[in-house]
C-alpha cells in the first residue's frame, strides 16, 4: 500500500498540470450535468416493513386518485379577545377566505370550518383545510401567492390567521453565515498550525474542490436516485471536514520530510505513501460506517449515508492526487517562514526532541491508571442522560415561535386539545366481511372505548365500499409517551376487535404512528448495525496495526465517545440544559434516526484519529522504540496535527448548529461534541493510557494470523531504504 501510494504521489507531483486539468475537467463535467439534470421529484418518506407504511400503501390502492400525498394548508382562525369566530362578521371573513382559496388553480378542495364542524367548543378558534392536487414542491408561485393574498385579507379584517401544513411551510436555512464562520475558524487553525498562508490555504482549496465535485454529482444524480436537500447537506458537512483533515495530514508529513532534507518530489512521495496510507484506511472506516446505514432499512437514511460516503471517497482521491500535485506548484511556499530561510530558530526547533504533544504523552505514560479512570468516569458521567432517551420525529412543535406553523400548532392544541395535532388514521379493510358498514362500525366503537381516545370520526368509505378511514384523536400530544402507549394498546387489542368485526381487519397509520414505527425500527436495527460496522472496521484495523488489542481498544473508545455525545444531545435537545444558547426554543424527543446516525458518522471519525495517531506510534514501535517511547514519539509527531484536525472538524460541524432545520442543528451539535470527546479525551488520554498499561502486549499478533494477513505496510517501512536510492537517481536524471 505505502509503496503504491508513494509512486502515485511522485507521479502526481511530476505531472501536476495533467492532474490539475483532470480534476478541473471532472468538476466541469459534473457541474454541467448538474445544470442539465431535472429537479428531483419529492418521493416522500417511506419506511418499508412497518404497519403504518402498509396502511398507507393500502390507502393508495383502495382510494386511487385521492391525492393522499398532495400538499395541504390548515388555516387556523383565532377571534379577537372577547369575540368568537362564529360571530356574524368574523364568520363572513372566514367564509370569504375559504371561497377565495377554493378558486386557486391547483386547489383540489377547501373545506369550510362551519360546515365541517371544525370550531372549538368555546368558539374562539376554527380551522379550514385547503387541499392541493400537487405535492408541496410542485406548487407554483401563483398558487402560493393566491392563498397568501386571501389570508392577508382575513388578517386585515381583524382575525388572527396562522397556517400549518406543508403548502406554505417556512423553508429552513441550511446553516447560512454560521457555515462561513466554521470555515473561517478552520482557516485560522490551519494558519496557526502551519505558520504559512499557502499551507493553510491548500487544505481549504482542495476540500472546497472536493465538496464541489461531490455536490454537483449529487445534483446530477438526484433525479435518478431521489436524493433530497438533506442528502447534500450531510455530504457537504462530512466532505468539507474530512477533506480539510486529510489534506492537513499529508501537508504536515510533507513538511516533516522536507525538514529531514528530502527534495520536494521525494517528500511528496513519502508523504503520500505514509500519511496517505493512513488517509486511505481512515477514509475506508468512514465509508464503511456511512454505507452501513443501509442495514437500518430506511431508504432516506441509506441515500444520505451513500451520498456522504461518496463525498468522503472523493476527498480521499483528491488528497492522494491533487494535494501532491499542488505541492509541486508551491514546493517551498507551504513551508514555514523559518524553514524557507533556514533560520537558526528553525534549526533549533529541528533539534528539539520535546514539544507539547510529547510532554503530555510523558505525563500519561507515567500515570496511566489515574488518567484512564478519570477519562472513562468523566465520559460515563456525560453519557448518563442517555438513560432518559426518548425518540420521536419533531414536527411543527419544534419550530421557532416566529413561524406561523408553530403558532398554528399552539392555537390548535389550545382550542381543540393536545392530541388534535397528532391524530391517528385507522384503515379498515372490510373486503372479507359480509356487512362492511357493520364491521367498520364495530371497529370504530371498540377503538372509541379505548382509554386515551377522545373521539373517532365518522367513517369515510371508498367507492367500492369495502375500505374505510377512521380518524382517531388521542387525548395527549403527538410526542407524548402516552400517545405511543395508546398506539401499542390499539394494536395489541386488534385480535379481539377483528374477531368481533366479522372478518374485517384494520391497521393504524398517520404521521404520529409513522414516527412511532420509525423510532422502533431504528432502535431494533441499532445492534445489527453496530455488529456490521464495528466488525468490518475491526478487521480493517487488524490489517492496519497488525494487533489484536489495538482494534478492540479503538472500538471501546468509540463507544465511550458516542455515548457521551448522545448524552450531551439528550441533555440539550430533550432536557433543555443550555438549549437557549443554541437557539433551541422547544425541547422534546430526540429525532428517531439520530442515535444510529450519530453512531455511524462518529464511528468513522473516531477511527480517523485512531489511524492517524496510533499509526505513528506503530511506526516508531516497528522501527525499534520501546512501547512507552513509541507512544511519546507518536504524540511528538502527530498530536499537534490531530488537535488541529479536531478543532477544524468541530468548527465545521458547529457551523451547522446555526441551521434552521432541527435535524441538521442536532446532527451538527452531536458531531461537534463527539469530536471534542473523542479527540481530546479518548485519543489524547484514554488511548495512550491503555497502550502504556498493555506495553508490548498491545502490539501482539499470533504468528499464524501474522502469516495469514497481507502486509499492507501503512507505516512505510519499505520506503525507508528506498528513499535515499530514489533521491540519488533523481539527482542523476533531474526532477
Describe the structure.
By secondary structure, the chain is an alpha+beta fold. Helices cover 64% and strands 7% of the residues. The protein is built from 25 helices and eleven strands. Strands 6, 7, 8, 9 and 10 form a five-stranded antiparallel beta sheet that branches. Strands 2-3-1-4 form a four-stranded antiparallel beta sheet, with helices on both faces. Strands 5-11 form a two-stranded parallel sheet. Strand 8 (460-461) and strand 9 (467-474) form a beta hairpin. Helix 9 packs antiparallel against helix 19 (511-545).
Strand and helix layout:
Layout: H1 2-14, H2 16-36, H3 51-62, E1 72-78, H4 88-102, E2 107-111, E3 125-132, H5 141-156, E4 160-165, H6 177-194, H7 197-225, H8 229-259, H9 264-291, H10 299-329, H11 337-341, H12 344-351, H13 356-366, H14 368-383, E5 391-392, H15 404-416, E6 424-429, H16 436-448, E7 453-456, E8 460-461, E9 467-474, H17 481-492, H18 494-500, E10 505-509, H19 511-545, H20 549-574, E11 590-591, H21 594-622, H22 627-655, H23 662-694, H24 703-708, H25 717-733
Parallel strand pairs: 5-11
Antiparallel strand pairs: 1-3, 1-4, 2-3, 6-9, 6-10, 7-9, 8-9
Amino acid at each position: 500500500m505505502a509503496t503504491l501510494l508513494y509512486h502515485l504521489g511522485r507521479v502526481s507531483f511530476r505531472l501536476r498540470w495533467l492532474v490539475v486539468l483532470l480534476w478541473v475537467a471532472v468538476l466541469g463535467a459534473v457541474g454541467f450535468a448538474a445544470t442539465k439534470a431535472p429537479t428531483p421529484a419529492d418521493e416522500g418518506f417511506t419506511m418499508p416493513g412497518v404497519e403504518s407504511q402498509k396502511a398507507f400503501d393500502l390507502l393508495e390502492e383502495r382510494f386511487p386518485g385521492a391525492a393522499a400525498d398532495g400538499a395541504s394548508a390548515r388555516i387556523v382562525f383565532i377571534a379577537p379577545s372577547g369575540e368568537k369566530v362564529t360571530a356574524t362578521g368574523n364568520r363572513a371573513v372566514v367564509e370569504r377566505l375559504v371561497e377565495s382559496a377554493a378558486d386557486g388553480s391547483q386547489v383540489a378542495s377547501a373545506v369550510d370550518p362551519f360546515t365541517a364542524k371544525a370550531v372549538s367548543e368555546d368558539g374562539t378558534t376554527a380551522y379550514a383545510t385547503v387541499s392541493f392536487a400537487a405535492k408541496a414542491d410542485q406548487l407554483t408561485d401563483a398558487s402560493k401567492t393566491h392563498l397568501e393574498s386571501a389570508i392577508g385579507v382575513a388578517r386585515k379584517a381583524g382575525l388572527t390567521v396562522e397556517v400549518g401544513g406543508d403548502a406554505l411551510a417556512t423553508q429552513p436555512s441550511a446553516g447560512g453565515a454560521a457555515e462561513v464562520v466554521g470555515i473561517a475558524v478552520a482557516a485560522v487553525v490551519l494558519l496557526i498550525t502551519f505558520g504559512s498562508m499557502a499551507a493553510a490555504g491548500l487544505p481549504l482549496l482542495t476540500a472546497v474542490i472536493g465538496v464541489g465535485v461531490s455536490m454537483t454529482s449529487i445534483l446530477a444524480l438526484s433525479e435518478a436516485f431521489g436524493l433530497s436537500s438533506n442528502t447534500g447537506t450531510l455530504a457537504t458537512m462530512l466532505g468539507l471536514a474530512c477533506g480539510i483533515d486529510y489534506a492537513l495530514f499529508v501537508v504536515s508529513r510533507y513538511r516533516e520530510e522536507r525538514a529531514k532534507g528530502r527534495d520536494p518530489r521525494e517528500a511528496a512521495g513519502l508523504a503520500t505513501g505514509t500519511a496517505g496510507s493512513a488517509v486511505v484506511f481512515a477514509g475506508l472506516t468512514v465509508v464503511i460506517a456511512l454505507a452501513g446505514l443501509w442495514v437500518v432499512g430506511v431508504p432516506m437514511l441509506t441515500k444520505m449515508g451513500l451520498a456522504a460516503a461518496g463525498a468522503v471517497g472523493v476527498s480521499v482521491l483528491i488528497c492522494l492526487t491533487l494535494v501532491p500535485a499542488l505541492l509541486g506548484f508551491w514546493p517551498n511556499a507551504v513551508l514555514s517562514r523559518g524553514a524557507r530561510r533556514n533560520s537558526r530558530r528553525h534549526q533549533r526547533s529541528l533539534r528539539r526532541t520535546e514539544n507539547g504533544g510529547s510532554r503530555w504523552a510523558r505525563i500519561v505514560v507515567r500515570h496511566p491508571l489515574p488518567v484512564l479512570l478519570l477519562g472513562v468516569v468523566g465520559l460515563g458521567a456525560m453519557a448518563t442522560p442517555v438513560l432518559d432517551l426518548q425518540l420521536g420525529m419533531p414536527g411543527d412543535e419544534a419550530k421557532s415561535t416566529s413561524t406561523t406553523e408553530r403558532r398554528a400548532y399552539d392555537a390548535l392544541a389550545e382550542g381543540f386539545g393536545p392530541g388534535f395535532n397528532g391524530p391517528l388514521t385507522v384503515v379498515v379493510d372490510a373486503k372479507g366481511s359480509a356487512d362492511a358498514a357493520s364491521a367498520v362500525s364495530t371497529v370504530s366503537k371498540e377503538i372509541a372505548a379505548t382509554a386515551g381516545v377522545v373521539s373517532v370520526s365518522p367513517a369515510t368509505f371508498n367507492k367500492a365500499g369495502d375500505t374505510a378511514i377512521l380518524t382517531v384523536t388521542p387525548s395527549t400530544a403527538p410526542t407524548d409517551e402516552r400517545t405511543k402507549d395508546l398506539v401499542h394498546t390499539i394494536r395489541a387489542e386488534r385480535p379481539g376487535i377483528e374477531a368481533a368485526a366479522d372478518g374485517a381487519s384494520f391497521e393504524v397509520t398517520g404521521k404520529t404512528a409513522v414516527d412511532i414505527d420509525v423510532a422502533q425500527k431504528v432502535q431494533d436495527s441499532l445492534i445489527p448495525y453496530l455488529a456490521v460496522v464495528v466488525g468490518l472496521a475491526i478487521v480493517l484495523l487488524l490489517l492496519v496495526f497488525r494487533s489484536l488489542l489495538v482494534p478492540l481498544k479503538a472500538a471501546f473508545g468509540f463507544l465511550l465517545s458516542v455515548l457521551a455525545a448522545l448524552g450531551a444531545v439528550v441533555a440539550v435537545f430533550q432536557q433543555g440544559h443550555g438549549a437557549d444558547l443554541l437557539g433551541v426554543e422547544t425541547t422534546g424527543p430526540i429525532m428517531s434516526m439520530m442515535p444510529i446516525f450519530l453512531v455511524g458518522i462518529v464511528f468513522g471519525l473516531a477511527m480517523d484519529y485512531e489511524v492517524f495517531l496510533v499509526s505513528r506510534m506503530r511506526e516508531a514501535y516497528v522501527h525499534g522504540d520501546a512501547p512507552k517511547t513509541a507512544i511519546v514519539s507518536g504524540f511528538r509527531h502527530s498530536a499537534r496535527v490531530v488537535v488541529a484536525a479536531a478543532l477544524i472538524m468541530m468548527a465545521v460541524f458547529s457551523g451547522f448548529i446555526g441551521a434552521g432545520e432541527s435535524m441538521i442543528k442536532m446532527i451538527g451539535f452531536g458531531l461537534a461534541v463527539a469530536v471534542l470527546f473523542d479527540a481530546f479525551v479518548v485519543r489524547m488520554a484514554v488511548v495512550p493510557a491503555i497502550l502504556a498499561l498493555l506495553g508490548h502486549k498491545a502490539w501482539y499478533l499470533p504468528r499464524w494470523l501474522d502469516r495469514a494477513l497481507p502486509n499492507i505496510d501503512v507505516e512505510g517501512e519499505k520506503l525507508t531504504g528506498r528513499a535515499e536510492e530514489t533521491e540519488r537517481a533523481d539527482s542523476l536524471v533531474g526532477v
